[in-house]
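Input set for joint prediction.
Command: fold jointly, output tokens.
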Amino acid sequence: MPYFKTNTEWYEQSSLLLKARPTTTRITSKYSVLKPTASKVQKRQKYAAKVAAKSKSTTDTSSPPPQSQNLEEPTATFTLKTYDPISGACLQYETTKAAEVGRLIGSLGRLGRYMAALPEVAEELSVSTENAGISTPAVEKDTKAGASAADPKAGGGGGKKKKKGKK
Amino acid sequence: MAGDHMETDEFFSKLTDLFEYNRKKGHGTIYLTQKRLTHDEVETLSSTRVLDDPLWDTHPDNPLPVLIRASNNASSKRSGTNRPGTDRDNIDKIKLSTVVQSDKLDTFYARYAEVCKAGMSGLKKRDRKKGKKDKKKKKVGPAESKS
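tokens >
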């Protein structure tokens, strides 16, 4: 059960899983606020001491005084988990940033469209065409790409690989 | 649980309360789940069709509704121990659920995002000002040492 490093990666893999098993796959998002454990508090104390010592040794450049963060401050995390009990596939992404919540709920909504068996959103189509434009800077390649695009749409990925090879 | 799903408006107001409750408590967890609702679909499907087409669920005839669930973490009081971490209270499980029809998905998720953004206040805020603050302090620092 991997934790992905980026939310786009999580989204892509989850969408693939949902396409394959739209009925059994579920997405659980967990918002968790926890008091720090004793060891975490200890770590924070050590870190605070280290920062204080460092600022003392280099007084002339004077790094900002350590933000006396409350050592007992609870840690909040937001974890997204896509799980399919039949195949056992479990894809996870975790963040602590509030700025990402909106984007993540947006991708939950797009994944919800797969669950509802609705066609993909128009936005995504425009994104894919943008990508195609970026990856085909030369005119010659464009014509070839157009020829390959005449083949089934699933071949798009293959076309991109070929272009990369030529570069 | 089947049959007592809430209306969207009620779900959102209860979800807001749930986040608010969590904030007051200062710690705790909220679980949000979404999955395809196939309860009715499976019953009406004849088994022969499933056998003929095992992958029927990847291309259903009609768009299906999505089930959204939300809950908190229940906890039970532990007695007889005085170790740290065992001083928790009895907290009942709060369960919310709603069914979103496929045509209302977009509007639902727009509201859902708002509620979640407002509710998840414990997460780290974007600290853009950090760099600026540092510069200011650096400027202030030497000035003080000179005087």
